[in-house]
Each structure stands twice: as structure tokens, then as C-alpha cells.
Amino acid sequence: MSKNLVIVESPAKARTLAQFLGKDYDTQSTFGHIRDLPKKELGVDVKKHFEPVYEIDPEKKKIVANLKKAAKGRIIWLATDEDREGEAIAWHVCHILKLDPTKTQRIVFHEITKPAITRAIDQPRTVDIKLVDAQQARRILDRLVGYELSPVLWKKVRAGLSAGRVQSVAVRLIVEREREITEHQPQSSFKVTAVFDSRGKELSAELDTKPTKSDSVKKFLEHSKKATFTVESVEQKPGTRSPSPPFTTSTLQQAAASRLGYSVRQTMMLAQRLYENGHITYMRTDSTNLSPLAIDAAKNYIAKEFGAKYSRSQQYKTSSRSAQEAHEAIRPTHLSKISAGADAQQHKLYELIWRRAIASQMTPAEIDKTEVRIAVSGREEIFIARGEVLRFDGFFKVYGGSKEDQILPDVKKDDSLKLRSMLASEIFSRPAARYSEATLVKKLEELGIGRPSTYAPTISTIQDREYVEKKDLDGETQKSRKLFLEDGKITESDKEIVVGADRSKLVPTQLAEIVTDFLLKYFGSILDYQFTAKAEADFDDIADGKIKWQESLQRFYDHFHPLIDKSKDASRSETLQVRELGIDPKSKEPVFARYGRYGPVLQLGQTPNAKDKSAPKPRFAPMPAEATLDDVTLKQALPMFNLPREVGKTTEGETITADVGRYGPYIKIGKQFISIKDHDPLSISETEAREVIKEKAKAAEERQIADFGQIKILRGPYGPYITNGKKNVRVPKGTKPEKISESEAKKLVERASVSRNRRFKKG
User: N or C: which end of the chain has fewer CB within 10 A?
Assistant: First the structure.
């Protein structure tokens, strides 16, 4: 048995380390955090300086037992990640193994390579308690907020809701942006472009103003029929485009979203795998620095592959305070390696990282810019034509793509130009763009809220908790007027354009709006952007040893806890935005729109006092399609109380009913539910319902390859698979699903279940 035991937090990282350490070292993994605050209680003694009570995760007890057994009589090396989370894991390992954190050897490395690991072993340190304290402060503060604030939401809004210091601020950003968009009143104006003739060559230009009235635009075009157009000035000047710094966590997430279409969570999972397999440096960092070795390696590679004129070594300044604990930007561990990763997605992300790191050490692209100003006789407006010519591609060689030349014809001051055509197109002002996952990360970073390790889980949480949906929005069609001048004639036309279409944007649910309004009213200071950023700054000060973590928590708690007591006075009906729509003419009962257990609902009749057992209970109905709590009317609401509605009978004589559920409108036959998103449940006919049932049966028949009772072989979106109703197993490659027997299908399902259980038992 080797005398050294290296403990890391990831089995993949352990396997990669083992390749470099040799037979004198054994590697073991904690599989993440092995000790934490208890799940079912606060676990923090507020009266004893916020003393935490940690417990071993029940699922990790076997891992802990194995670590204790492996650690006996050996030299322990703690090699968890170099950020605060990694430092905290190392500290918890010390406590579990009864090691002295001030004496146990702690090694850190920014990349999993032989030189980096050798260097770390030659220069070990001990656990940095200041970093541990900063992590503890964040964990405890977030526990205090979640544990005390979430029950308030359970009482005032809905059971099972959660609130968090960073997640609630992120939701607030999305809610406020959506309201900006809703309140935006589009203003129309006209973009006027012209095509001129310059000695037989075409010159396109745009008017420097955007008229807002069609009458004034028409007058301008009428004037232009007989106007003369003269080159007022020609300005030429050289320009440059400089490369961006190498990636930080947030800029990688943004670039991967825009260039590769990856979600924030997906990007971080792929980057984690690349890091653990030794392909890139640590992926959670605010730093844009590169090591001197990396800069030299980039210089040599660029000079060899592209020539010395493309090389420009540069160190980028890092603005973030917290970057001091993350020593380097994200880069390949070997800059000469242009491809790496276990699958296509990893390959693409690695290539993006490689291109950005190499480009950051290359020369700027050189561009000649030309601006031509064209005067219109008798008018003050000016047409402007702009052109660019790429003189030297520089870093465009590897990142950013080649710049297409926009070459203008050779014109000189006072040249007279002939008008070929002129087009005035009506355009509409746009509100601020909705947040995507990447732009939300950028905004949180700008505000100083959260850190690299928190962005992905925060964005995942607000979607998992149904505060936010990632959606494609179709937009609305609007008429756009166009006026076209050619050969002395003006023609007018209308064209329909789509306004407000969006793809993969974060849209708040009604629940998000209700919770945000409530929190802003009773916990406004906690959701304040500067207040939240100040908490992050305090964590940095704790890590720097400038303040004690208990002091920071005490200041926060003294401010936060009294707000919990004040919120008890909040009215539930006010919180749920209960709105009376009017009186039902038949029952003479009031009709309300309110937020219910699963979302917005309609209510007919008053909610009885809990003590009055004999009082009639109100009736509930789903909201009409496209209506919200804010805009639903009594006229829209009343028909919804006719649901569920009997539509007719199936050909077999079974009753068909139509209704609206949590996931939209549907018809029901016995215990079967069939979505009818293209039909109105209030008006769908028996004939239409039967057609829907027929189409559903046909689709199910086409999907089914074999039916063995409990076990079936089906066609899925990713290929054929076997299912027993609880577990799905892919059909092995090279096997024809039609030829699989019942016994073979059963064996494949059983084998997959056993294999999965074994993997789970290992960790």
C-alpha cells in the first residue's frame, strides 16, 4: 500500500491525478461535500455567534467510512479545488478524519498537469481558514434567509416555495425587465436609405435623422425628386479591433450561449469535465490573468503557426476583487493542443476556449474606416455612407471570424451624385431585451451579485422552482409603411412585420410576480441590489482577513430578522393579488381572479370563515387562455365555470368531457387525458374530439414497436427504447428492435438496473 493518500472531491479528477502521481500515491474522492448543515432544521445557533451544526450526508456515510479506512497510517494530501468551496471541503475532511487543519498538507493547482501537480507537492500549504470562514459565512447567511423567509412564503403565497438571497434578486431582475417590456409603448419612425450612382458605381447611404411622421417623410421624398446630392466630405482614418481577454466563468457562459447555444448549466458541466480530465485550467474564476508560462507558450505557438507579426503578448487587468483567489483565466493546459474532449459538445467548448486564449495573445486587426457625408440641396439632413476595409486580420485569424470588406466607391469632396432610389421604411422602437441565461449572468456580475460558483445553480433553481420559464416568444404582427422613390415616382405600401419575437429568453411566471411584489414590500432592503452586492463584498473581506465572519452575519441578521416579524401583518388576499371582477348574474355571487395552488384561478363565491363549517364553499375554474390576473374580465371568466363540459360520446359510447388543467386544455375519456391545445374546451365539438382521439391512437400505434404487456418497445425522439413503465433502456446499437423477444427485453432492463445500482453504490 502506498504511503500517501491524496483526497479530491471528484472521481474523474482522482483518475486524472492518478495518471501523474505514480505508485507512491493513492487517490480517493469525497464525491463533493461530505458534511453540511442539516437538511430538515436550521442547523445554526444564532445565539451562540451563529455556530453551525454540521452533519455527514447520510448518502456519504459509506464514502466517509472508506476514507477513514484508507487514511490510517498514511500521509494525507488535501487536493480539493482552489476556490472557497474546495477549501471548505478540505476543512470538513480534516474534521471527519480528525486531522489538524493547521498541519495537514493542502495542495492546490490551477490545472491538472504533471508540472502543476509536481509544483504543488513541492510547495504544500495548510488549509486557509480565512477562505473557509468566507464559505461558511455565505452558507450560513443563505441558510438563515432561506430557512426564515421560505416559511413566510408558504403561509402567504403557496406551500413549498423557496426564497434565497441571490435567487430572489435574480427573479426580481427578470420581473422588472418583463414589466418594462409590457409598459413599453412602441414609437414609430422612418429609416430612410438611398442608393446613389457615382460614375457607374453604387453607393448606399442612410439619412442621419429618423422622421416620425409619414407626411414629413413623403415631403422629403417629394423634395428629393428634384434635389441635387453633393459629397460634403470624405473622412478616412485607420482603426483597430483588439482581442478580448481570455475567458472568465461568466464570459465563457455568455460566449458559449451566443456561439454554441449552450445553457449556463450545460456549459459548466462540460467545462468541469474538461478540467477534471486535464484539458483546461480551473473553470470557476473571475481572473483574466494568464501565467507567464502560458503567455510564452502562446507566443511560440502563434509565431510558429501564423508568423511573428501576429504575436503580441499581453497581460489583462482583472477588475473583480474576488479574482485574487483564482490565479488564472480559463485556458487550455496545453496551448498547442487545438482539440480535446470526450464528445462533440466538449470538443466545441474546448475549441472556443482555445481560440479565445490564443486570440488574446495576438495583434489587433487593422481596419481602414471611411465615412462619406452627402448633402441634399435645400435641406439640412445629411446622408451618411460608411465603409471598412480590413488591412490586417490579426486575431481575426482564429477568433471573431474574418471581417468582410465594405468598400465604398472612390468619391471626392464636391462630387455630384445621381439618385437611383430612396426607401423610407417604418420601424418601431423596442424595449430593453429580455434576459437570456447568459445576459442574466452578465447583469448579476455587473451588479456584484453572486460569484462564478453561484451563477449556474442560481439560474437552474429559479427555473426549477417555476419562478421563471425559458421560452420562445412568437411576437406580434404590425403593419409597417414603406415609401419608395424611383424614376421620379413615389409608391406607398404596407408590409406586415413581426415585433417582439424572442428565442430562449427568461420570462417570469405569475408566481414570480406575486412573490417579488410581496418580498419588495416587506423585504425590500434584502432584495436591494446594492445591499446584496455589499454581502458579496463582505465575503471578500472575510477571505482577506479584514473582518470576522460572525460580525458580518450579526449585522445582516440584526437587519433581516425584524422584517420577518413585520411580514406577519401581510394580508393573504393582498399578497395573492385577489381581484374582484364583478357579480355572477345567475348566482349573484362575486367572481374573483386570484392565485391558487397551481397558478392563477377564478373563484365564484366568498371564501368562508374557517370556523363556519356550514358556509357554502366557493367554486373554482381555470383562467381563460392568454388571460392574466391583471387583465381577465368578468365576460371572459363566467363561461369558464361551465367546465368541465360534456362534449359527447366516443364511437364506443364512452363519455367525452373537456376541461382546462395545469398543463392546458384537454379532453378526458375514462382515465385517459388528451391535450387539445389547438381547440377551445368551451366549443370543441364531438366530431372534433373524436378526430383528436383518433389521431392520438394513430400516433401511439406508430410509436409502438412491440407490446409484451408490462414491457414495451417504443420509438422515441432519440431512437428506439425498451420500457417497463418505470425505467427506459436504449436498444443496443446494431440490434433491430423489431427482432427483440420478450425475454431479451426483460434481460436488457434487468441488466441496466443492476449496472446503475452498482454505479450508485460506488459513490
Answer: N
Distance between start and end Cα atoms, the chain: 22
CA 653-654-657 angle, 5° bins? 130
130's grid cell: 480565512
Counted residue by residue, the chain has a size of 763
334 and 346 in contact (C-beta within 8 Å)? no
Query: Mind listing the pLDDT tens digit for each residue in 265-319?
Result: 999 999 999 999 989 999 888 889 998 889 999 999 999 999 999 999 998 887 6
Q: Which CATH number fits domain 4-127: 2.40.10.120, 3.40.50.700, 3.40.50.140, 3.40.50.300?
A: 3.40.50.140
Backbone angles phi, psi at 277, to 5 degrees: -95, 10
Q: At what angle do helices 437-447 and 529-543 cross, to 10 degrees?
A: 70
Q: What is the CATH number of domain 249-359?
A: 1.10.290.10
Per-position DSSP letters for 663-726, written without gaps between them: TEEEEEETTEEEE-TTS-TTT--HHHHHHHHHHHHHHHHHHEEEE-SS-EEEEETTEEEEE-SS
Parallel, antiparallel, or unpaired: how do β-strands 75-78 and 105-106 relate? parallel
Are the C-beta atoms of 398 and 311 separated by less than 8 Å?
no
Q: What pLDDT, on the 0 to 100 scale, is given for residue 199?
A: 87
pLDDT at 326 over 70: no
Burial of 298 (0-12, 13-18, 19+ CB in 10 A): buried
Q: What is the pTM of this model?
A: 0.80
Where, residue-wise, is CATH 3.40.50.140 in the chain? 4-127
Report which of 208, 351, 337 is spatially closest to residue 271, judged by C-alpha positions.
351
pLDDT at 610 over 70: no
Domain 188-231+373-428 has CATH 3.40.50.920: no
Domain with CATH 1.10.290.10 in the chain: 249-359
- Please state whether beta strands 35-36 and 51-52 pair in parallel, antiparallel, or not at all (unpaired): unpaired
Cβ 488 vs Cβ 225: under 8 Å: yes
Q: What is the DSSP letter of 257?
A: I
For residue 203, the 8-state DSSP code is E
SS3 494: strand
Phi, psi of 603 (to 5 degrees): -130, 130
Contacting residues for 588 by C-beta, under 8 A, at least 6 apart: none
* Residues marked as catalytic: 282
